[in-house]
Design brief:
Number of domains: 1
Order of helices and strands: HHH
Number of helices: 3
Number of strands: 0
Mean pLDDT: 83
Structural class: mainly alpha
Largest sheet: none
Low-confidence stretches: none
């Protein structure tokens, strides 16, 4: 997804869709932390 959308597009999409919280609430911790780390970097 990052390659297709670019860094900024990926960050905007991730924040708007609330994917990190959704994955965290499902207890998919590695996936949620990966998105969070990708957003921070």
């Amino acid at each position: 997804m990052v390659r297709d959308m670019g860094d900024i597009g990926f960050i905007i999409d991730t924040l708007e869709s609330d994917k990190i919280r959704t994955l965290y609430e499902r207890r998919w911790f590695p996936e949620s932390l990966y998105l969070l780390a990708r957003w921070i970097i």
